Every structure is written in structure tokens, then in C-alpha cells.
Amino acid sequence: MTPKSKSAAQQRPQPQVIRAVGPLRAWVSRVRDKGETVALVPTMGALHAGHLALVRLARRRADRVIVSIFVNPAQFGPNEDFGSYPRTWDADVLALSQLKVDAIWAPGVATMYPDGFATRIAPGGPALARLEDRFRPHFFGGVCTVVAKLLLQVAPDYATFGEKDYQQLKVVTAMARDLDIPTKIVGLPTIREKDGLAMSSRNAYLSTGERAAAPALYRALTDCAKHLKAGSPLAATLGEAEAQIENAGYAVDYFEARHAETLAPIQSVKDGPVRLLVAAKLGRTRLIDNLQV
Ligand code: AMP
Q1: What's the whole-model pTM score?
Q2: What is the mean pLDDT of the chain?
Q3: Ligand 1, residues 57, 88, 164: which to mutate, most atoms within 8 A of Cβ?
Q4: What domains are defined for the chain?
Q5: Per the CB 3.0–4.6 Å rule, which of 41, 47, 48, 273 could disulfide with 260?
Q6: Is the four-CA dihedral 4, 10, 14, 18 of positive or negative sign?
């Protein structure tokens, strides 16, 4: 076969798939020896356009992009969806090859948490803001433990995280600062479907009817932000937003206005900058979203 007759897929360089820490460090050393910079994009796979936007952001920042795909058992509670979390390996690899990602770090659970693993990061500050942590008390400890490992394994110049998980972005930024991890944490605004629903791997759980109702979450955020900017009182406006979401069929865990940087509670929008944060269940699917006021 002549080179010309090769299909585009055959010609495209595949990302190197790495499954153990030794080969990962060797890959990082080769890149560093050439004087190149590295950006890491941590994911749990089931990639969608939000993840791919994080990859493009990473590509703009650094010479080499490595995407980790690891469904992290440490951040799921006993009654959560670790077992059923969507796993779409072949489609993920194809999407990452199309974006010319250099490497995929895909450790197994026994590689990340070998027998005898006994260390866990206990984040404070934004991890105890009584938002996600109120409903998922194990979550940020699990996230920080795995992200700290990823940042130590890859030692990237940059790591990209979505504002979709706003509290997580604040928690990871604080952890990197507190532990003197020299990686720059870079945030990306939320990527949405055309109807406003924030892209999420968990949207795949929604039935047709639930999917039709789902954009109410973002509509409530945008309406609430508009009313607050126009001077409506905080508590009543948040109450209306909660009712709006419940009328669409959601069961609300929280709908709150917080200081956008510290996540501290606020009494008025004048205490801002203000971020609205919401978590709610549609049937069995728990969705989160947030918006700057
Ligand atoms: P996950 O695979 O859900 O753990 O997410 C991996 C990364 O993608 C995290 O930094 C998320 O915040 C980010 N992410 C997920 N959904 C979106 C989205 N719709 N827009 C931007 N970033 C996102």
C-alpha cells in the first residue's frame, strides 16, 4: 500500500496509551529532555464536547497534551454510580486522536490504589463549603487524592479543569497552592448543549422525558442571575429559582448564592462577586450547574 492510499485514520498519529507509572515517567522525561511543556487534562472518560474543549485549552497552553482517563472509585460513595458510570474507551481514544493528543494515561484501579494504599488527602476550605460536600461527604477527599497523585505522576506545567464542577475547581486550586504543587491550574467556562444544559457524562442516564425537562436547571440559573442583577432580594429570588426547578420535575439538593472566590455564604449581591450553584436530581440522575451573577 502506498502512503497515499492510507486512510486519514491510519495516517493520524495515535496517542500513546500508557498504563503504568514507569512508562508514564519515561514519557514525561522524553518530553522534558526536549525542553517541551506539558498540560494534563484529568477526566473519567465518557468524553463529550466539554472534555474536548479542555483538551483544546491544554493544547493552547503547552507543547504536549496528556489526557488521563480514570474512573476514580475513591470519589464515589457506596450508593453512587461507580459501577454503572459510562465507559466509552474506543470512542474516547478516537476523539483524542482526532485532537492529536500526545498520550493517554489510563491506569487501572490496582495501579492507582495498589494493595496497602493507605493515604488520603483531607481538603478543607472550599471543600467544606457545605455545597457538594454536604451531599457527598467522601467526594473531595477522593478527588484531591487522585488529582494529587496525577499531578505528582505527570508533574505537568498546566492542568485544565472545568467550571462545570465549580467547587471542585476551587478545591483543586487550593490544594495545589497549599501543597506547593507547581502546576498551574487553569479553569474553562462550562460547555453547554444548544438548549443550555451543561454537558456531562451523566446526561446519558436521562430518559427522553427527563432530557426534555433538564434545561430548566440552566434557565433557573439565568433567570435568577438576571433578577439579582436587577436588584431583587436574595432569599426570595433563590426561593423562586428553587420552585422553578421543582416545577420542572427536579428534586433540589441545594440552590445557593455564594462568594465566587471563597464560596462563603453571602447576605446580599453586594457581598460579591457572586456565583449561583445548584445540584438537583431528575429521576435517579443528579445534575449540577453554576453561573456567575
Ligand atoms: P469528569 O470526566 O466528569 O470527571 O470531568 C473531567 C473534567 O471535565 C473536569 O475538569 C470537569 O469539570 C470538566 N467538564 C465536565 N463537563 C464539562 C463541561 N460541560 N464544560 C467544561 N468542562 C467540563
Answers
A1: 0.95
A2: 95
A3: 164
A4: 3-188 (3.40.50.620), 201-292 (3.30.1300.10)
A5: 273
A6: negative
